[in-house]
Amino acid sequence: MTPAIRRRPFLPLFVTPAVLVAAAIVAAMVAILRYSLHAYVPGSLDVGGLTLENFTDLGRPIVLRALRDTVLICFETALITLVVGYPVAYALVRTRSVLLKSVILVTAVTPLFLGEVVRTYAWTVVLGNSGFVNATLRQFGLIERPIQLMFTELGVIIALVHVTLPVMVIMLAAALAHIDRDYERAAQSLGAGPVRAFLTVTLPLSMPGVVAGFTTAFAWTFSAFATPQVIGGGKVGVVSTLVYQLGLSSFNFPVAASLSLAGLVLALGTMWLVRRAARPLEALGGH
């Protein structure tokens, strides 16, 4: 028995599940890579010989449009989630009322306990032409005709913001809770008002949480399938829905596998660029 195991006897028990999950993920990635390197045989579930033609098919306009739209939708969703989630996280951390804190926490986290499919179908009721949004706007005389929200990019983003908001609030609340209030008191003692103290002290110190929340929301949205599929209705093409159409509708598993790999590389590359661009912001929070 090694000294590390003698000091922590439960270490193998805790590490084993993580190793098994990692092994399953690696096996799945190897299978996807294998499919991507074999030819598509029309009318058959079997694959042909080795080829790189699947990757050249990724240059088709419909695929490039799906990759572009996926990045844009993920970026817009992460940005809107950050703008909406920051005040909620701030109120959650700074409010002194236990009751209000509990209400904010339950309201913000509850969507996590609902399945993605349940949440998505609930949004079809809200965003439909006769749904809650259009019915309310028409009742107050703000619109004459229903606003088309279903099967649009705007509807997909609204639903995705709802999905990612709990994660964003939790990460921002963790970052805000670790900020020493003495920094703000020191700024205010030197003449800074509440707004200036927030902009010059609290906001910069919370930047690590902002960057972490933004990148997590981006990655979370990139893997979303049910929401773009149901709310988009096939009119909003993203990587996940296109992989589904290629794999389970056309049974073109090789191209679906190559598109999955391209989506993974695109997601990792975009997140790497975001983290590099956000390094100066993260440095502001080095307290």
Draw up the topology in text.
Layout: H1 3-7, H2 11-36, E1 38-40, E2 47-50, H3 53-56, H4 61-94, H5 98-109, H6 116-127, H7 132-139, H8 153-177, H9 181-189, H10 194-205, H11 207-222, H12 226-232, H13 239-249, H14 253-277, H15 279-284
Antiparallel strand pairs: 1-2
Helix pairs in contact: 2-14, 4-5, 4-8, 4-11, 6-12, 8-11, 8-12, 9-10, 11-14, 13-14
| Whole-angstrom Rg | 23 Å
Strand-and-helix sequence, N→C? Answer: HHEEHHHHHHHHHHHHH
Q: Report the structural category.
A: mainly alpha
By DSSP (H or I, 4+ residues per run), the number of helices equals: 15
Q: What portion of residues is helical? A: over 70%
Distance between the termini: 41 Å
Mean pLDDT: 88
CATH level 1 class label: Mainly Alpha
CATH fold assignment = MetI-like fold
Largest sheet: 2 strands, antiparallel
Strand content: under 5%
Superfamily (CATH H level) name: MetI-like
Low-confidence stretches: none
The CATH architecture designation is Orthogonal Bundle
Q: Order of strands across the biggest sheet?
A: 1-2
Number of strands: 2
Tell me the domain tally: 1
Shape: globular
Question: Could you explain how this protein is built, in words?
Answer:
With 287 residues, the protein is mostly helical. It has a single domain (47-285), classed as MetI-like (MetI-like fold, Orthogonal Bundle). It has 15 helices and two strands. The chain has helices at residues 3-7, 11-36, 53-56, 61-94, 98-109, 116-127, 132-139, 153-177, 181-189, 194-205, 207-222, 226-232, 239-249, 253-277, 279-284, and strands at 38-40, 47-50. Strands 1-2 form a two-stranded antiparallel sheet. Strand 1 and strand 2 (47-50) form a beta hairpin. The relative contact order is 0.13. Residues 67-274 form the ABC transmembrane type-1 domain. InterPro entries: MetI-like, MetI-like_sf. Keywords: Cell membrane, Membrane, Transmembrane, Transmembrane helix, Transport.
